[in-house]
Amino acid sequence: MAQKPSIPKGTRDFNPEQVAKRNYIFNTIRGAFETFGFQPIETPSFENSDTLMGKYGEEGDRLIFKILNSGDYLSKANGEAYDTKNSNKLTSSISEKALRYDLTVPFARYVVQHQNEIEFPFKRYQIQPVWRADRPQKGRFREFYQCDADVVGSKSLWQEVEFIQLYDRVFSALKLEGVTIKVNNRKILSGIAEVIGASDKLIDFTVALDKLDKIGEEKVKEEMLGKGISEDGISKLQPLFTLSGSFESQIESLKTILSASEEGKKGIEELSFINTAISELGLSTARLQLDVTLARGLNYYTGAIFEVSAPKTVKMGSIGGGGRYDDLTGIFGMKNVSGVGISFGLDRIYLVLEELGLFPETVNKNVAVLFINFGDKEALFSLKAINKLRLQGINSELYPDAAKMKKQMNHANKRAIPFVVLVGDEEINSNTYTLKHMISGEQHKVSLEALITLIK
């Protein structure tokens, strides 16, 4: 007996109802992107390996899916690496391409490659799948969609303000209340590293700090010690682990902690500007919160960083994030082009909306009417009516086979189709249609105009 087929861990099939719900989220996000002036682009699902590698830090690089070279890839493999089982050197000799890890680095490549065609500042959005060789768990998949919006070519902090408003607009449209937009600034983290004497270990410091909500304070301290950050320096971090209160009160505390760091003070100034603007403009459903332990482990962030948390009633990781990257295109030779962007985590947003029952009942636009098939003559007559129903925007269908009546009616019931139409000799001769309401069981013989009106 043939083995039952399966799919790789961390990937999913989606049934029609799930696709309809996902499209509802896609369309909501896409509509907000376009309202805010962003234009769509698309990039390939895989890139040259050297485009991606080294852009996400050591941990990110390990999660990139590599694609084996075509043909006899081992014939060109690094012999020494193969013999010594050096996977890093071996991989580079047998794999020249990789699946994209996110949409931001491919976007930077796109900007550099098409710089002479782009009008700056350039506002783009992108809704496409990405792949990560991560350990699958709830809300974390190996293949998933990202919904990104970025602006390149402007250092204005008004962009950060607009992105916070954009988050708020989308979650308001999805009726998702209680969302928290956490914000920090990499300049503040640089300032903290400077104050504790760990400027040369900034990446190690931020990667460890970014795990605070996952592994806890003590484990974070252990990891920092393991990376060579001194006990004295770590003890100076203690006020950060307990920092709380309003946005404004935390800013005042930071001014004291970072009084000796010019870089840190610049970060405080930028956050104060954003908070003041949002306070004036207001938010509909989301809440802005300063979180000085927010680090986001990606190396390319240089300014404000964002992370969006779902309502506290739902156990879920972040449902969005992003930040400012002052020289991301510099990795491809195009210097001094500042950018800032955010991303929506579609799959996690889906799980949150599902758990809270926030999908509208109308999201799954089902077939409204099924025409029963009694034979070729009746089917042809029915299809003439179906064509007119479809022109009126009514989802209509003819059962393809002249099967038993009970089988066709059961098909309509299983698919929750609210109406069926029966057409026999009598209906053809009188140019009418028998409309049956599947829930009430009522039947009416009606004209085509009345049929359209009743179904609508």
TrEMBL record:
The protein's matches in Pfam families, at most eight in alphabetical order, are given as: HGTP_anticodon (PF03129), tRNA-synt_His (PF13393)
What class does this enzyme belong to in the EC scheme?
A: ligase
Question: Primary place of residence?
Answer: cytoplasm
User: Which domain of life does the protein's organism represent?
Assistant: Bacteria
Per its record, the protein catalyses: tRNA(His) + L-histidine + ATP = L-histidyl-tRNA(His) + AMP + diphosphate + H(+)
InterPro entries referenced in this protein's UniProt entry, alphabetically: aa-tRNA-synth_II, aa-tRNA-synth_II/BPL/LPL, Anticodon-bd, Anticodon-bd_dom_sf, His-tRNA-ligase, HisRS-like_core, HisRS/HisZ, HisRS_anticodon
Output the PROSITE patterns linked to this UniProt entry.
Answer: AA_TRNA_LIGASE_II (PS50862)
Q: Which residues form the Aminoacyl-transfer RNA synthetases class-II family profile domain?
A: 1-400
- What subcellular compartments does it reside in? Cytoplasm
List the CDD domains: HisRS-like_core (cd00773), HisRS_anticodon (cd00859)
Q: Which SUPFAM superfamilies match?
A: Class II aaRS ABD-related (SSF52954), Class II aaRS and biotin synthetases (SSF55681)
Report if keyword Nuclease is assigned.
no
Q: How does it assemble?
A: Homodimer.
What HAMAP family does the database record attribute to this sequence? His_tRNA_synth
Q: Which NCBIfam families match?
A: hisS
Q: Which family does it belong to?
A: Belongs to the class-II aminoacyl-tRNA synthetase family.
Q: Which named protein is this?
A: Histidine--tRNA ligase
Q: Which organism is it from?
A: Flavivirga jejuensis
